[in-house]
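Much of what follows relies on a compact textual record of a protein's fold. A record is reproduced here so that you can trace the correspondence yourselves:
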Amino acid sequence: MDPERSRVRKYYPSSLSVQSKLITAFVFLTMLAIGVVSWIGYVSARESLRAAAERELTGLQRSKASLVQNILKSARNEALSLSAEQDTTTDARELLAAYRQLAREPVTPEMQEEVRRFYREEFEPALREHTAIDPPKDSLLPTTSTGWYLHYHYLVKGSRPYSSKNITSSSTDESAYAQVLARTLPELLGKIRRLGQENILLVDPETLEVFFSIKQSSILGTSLVNGPYAASKLATIAGALRHSQNVDDYKFADFEAYYPAFGQPNAFVGTPIFDGSRMSAIMMLRAPMEPISNALSGNGQWEAEGLGKTGEVYLLGPDKTMRTDSRFLIEDRAAFLATLRKSHLTARTVDTVERLNTTILTIPVQHEAAELALRGQTGIKQLNDYRGVPVFLAYGSVDLDSLRWGVIAKIDEAEAMGPLGVYARRVLAWSVGIALLATIIAFLLAKVLTRPITALVRAAKQVSMGELDARVDLIATDEYRELGEAFNEMVTSLRTSRDELDRQVMENERLLVSLLPASGAAQVREGTAETRQSFADVTVAYINLAGFESQSTELGEEGSMALLSDIVAACDEAAEQHGVEKVRTIGSSYLAVSGLSVERPDHTAQMVDFAREVVRIVSRFNAERGVRLVAEIGINAGPVIGGMVGRRKFIYDLWGDTVKLARGIESDGKNSILVTRPVYERVRDLVAFGTETSSEVRGMGSIELFSLLDEATA
């Protein structure tokens, strides 16, 4: 070995070739440029998406807060208007006078025992079931004789189940109160229905006893001073209004677990009723939470409101619990509860949500935005919501009377920043593509620049290996030019051979695909032709050209074959357009399948469209060629087994009851498409069907069939 050559190898044992260095440098610079531009674009897109989400949430929060404020003001005005009506004043005065007379009515021990039994056996078990609250024994019983009297006549002897209906004229109460109630109830009921309300409570301003309720309620006849509901927020606003001198005074009672409604959250608006200059009653109406919930959710159309699939707007009370139901509870209760059980919330809290089926007063919202909203501040935050999910959140507040609610608008960060992920994936895909292209271009450029050196090295190696056809003597004649010409001739020869081979492969592939479905062609290509494949769900159509044999006599053998070839070619073209695969043809029958090689959810609908197209094809040939062929088509869907039949000369075929049933369907000899029930169930909303029929299929018994209507002109 040459000593000089050995020294070069000793000092540079692993040095890169010139070609490799050129490729590495070109690809590195390309990827560096792509990386810098992509990062700048990513940061810009992230900031733009975040800013857009914040703007939209802020606008939604402010508009929804304004809506809630207007609804609350409207409810206040409606309550004030109702309390100021003369009819309301008269009804309240008469009811209160009759109520006070009830103190003289006898209450027997038997009546009290019936009331106790009602609470013990009906009311308290239902309350425990709905709220898991077990009140102390006899703690919910009335504390006045009037309360015992009304509970006996209107609860014990009232409608069942409890609170399901309005109180009516009692069949057992013969007092003056019952007479006044029968006269005033229809009028008061009409008034509250016009306001979209269900109930109205009237309270004696002197004793704070509830002397009227339209709905059957355990609060009727109880004292809000020392009765079972004396500690409620309802009692608080009644106490605040009893000494009011202002006819336009009102108070708002925030949500609480309202025991008379089995612990369901309720909020109330209270206002005084004046009879001249004297207060005659305190009226309580339920706060209009349904209109507020509808306003916040856009009547359940969150996406139309610009909140996407995960956004919502909800109210937050001073105790940092929700005042409206969560969107996720309304849309998918099971999934919502499953999410909550994985969050930071306690199992007891989630059980309460599940039992009451509401997030009002049940889910605590403990984050910085809640604090700020309840302080009357507005802004935008990125944090984890009550589900423990990262969100973008806009917060603010709404005030009425002495009450402040937080108004929170939010959307999941994953959804808000979803387009960023799409952008990143596209950038990655383009980067990979550009990198590959840059590698190819760098390789080609390096190859051009180093071609003479590479050719000399290759020729020298060939000579050293004994390949004398390398013609090294070309160097001596015209150096690199002549050597390059020789190299080009060699490449041209190789390229020609390769192109010819590719052409042959493509021709073979085209022939294979034209003869077999894609899955069968793949089996042959992979050398697994003897393997049988199971397909869980495909749609199979068996087409029979009825009347073809009779036409053969008129057209002759060549004419019949030409007609059949043209029809099959037209069907093949229609199959390709509809994503349907031809399995095989036997005589004048045609077996096709959809959903075999390519899984697609609409394969049944595609097959039905294909079948309708076949009917049109046959009708067209009848008109153009003067023949009388009928396309009888049976369509079925279900599992099949597919595979090659034969070894050297083979065909692809399908087996199974699905194919057997499609092939066994017989029509009435007219242009018809008959489908089985599985097919009918999948496409009945897309196409019109006639009445259901049944047909005997050999080996399978009676089968339900459905015929498409007007398929020839569809």
The chain is about 50% helix and 20% strand.
